[in-house]
Amino acid sequence: MPGTSSTTPSEEPPPSMARESLLREPPVTERGKRTWEALIAAARTVFERDGYLDARLTDITAEAKCSAGTFYTYFAGKEEIFAAVLARAQEDMLHPGMPHVDADDDPVAIVEASNRAYFAAYRRNARLMGLLEQVANVDAEFRQVRQNRGDAFIRRNARSIAALQKRGLADQTLDPQLASRALSSMVSRLGFWHFVLEPEESADPARFEELVATATRLWANALRLPQRD
Asked: Which of 22, 128, 140, 163 has the fewest CB atoms within 10 Å of its CB?
């Protein structure tokens, strides 16, 4: 539910993190695939280290140990390789390995499992998530792509809240869409604050557990979900 959750078979996958018009098909040869992969990995390193605006293609090719000519065989420029970096990272942000929780289980346990998976993925990708904030502030098209993706998860969480209301487990007076927007935004900003703005503190396992517990309790309290002692 909260944040960015995994996709179930009955749901459409969320929009891509990247502008799909900038994505190319990967090379067909093994050598080409290795070079392509090396360039994407190098670009992520440089973007996270230097920021999007200050990242230079010469730094990416140096990191990948290849020539500028090789770079342009696979990518037209910085925008295209940034899109490839995002396309590669988005699967991790969909919580692979999220523990299975049945839809009929304790709703608070479902919220907790989703929060834990979201924050764990955010922690793994903290530098990239900080980079996304930077790019969204300077690129209107990317900002719209990011908003579309966020809206998809808000709608998904709204459906989950409505289902809990139908089962008599959540506050019937809440508008599911507004409640989802408020609570999903809270979890997202908590992740940004904790893992991007306070990276030293986020390394503490106890603080991670406190983060998960606090976000879960706030979700449960806001929806008036029945809670076990």
From this structure: 140
Other beta carbons within 10 Å of 49? 13
Rounded Cα distance, 180 and 158, in Å: 5
Instruction: Give CA separation, 97 vs 67, 114, 121, in Å.
Output: 37, 11, 10
As a whole number of angstroms, the distance between CA 116 and CA 122 comes to 10
| Distance in angstroms (rounded) separating the CA atoms of residues 143 and 211 | 27
Question: How far apart (Å, rounded) are the C-alpha atoms in residues 109 and 220?
Answer: 10
pLDDT tens-digit profile, the chain (229 residues): 665 444 343 456 677 777 888 888 999 999 999 999 999 999 999 999 999 999 999 999 999 999 999 999 999 999 999 999 998 888 777 654 455 555 567 899 999 999 999 999 999 999 999 999 999 998 898 899 889 889 998 999 999 999 999 999 999 999 999 999 999 999 999 999 999 998 877 778 999 999 999 999 999 999 999 976 5
Closest CA to 82 of 117, 47, 32, 126: 47
C-beta contacts of 214-218 below 8 A and 24+ residues apart: 214/190, 215/2, 215/115, 215/119, 215/186, 215/187, 215/190, 216/108, 216/111, 216/112, 216/115, 218/183, 218/186
Q: If you ran DSSP here, which 8-state letter would residue 13 be given? A: P
Pairwise CA distance, residues 42 & 37, whole Å: 9
Taking the C-alpha atoms of residue 227 and residue 223, their distance in angstroms, rounded to an integer, is 11
**DSSP code of 26?**
P
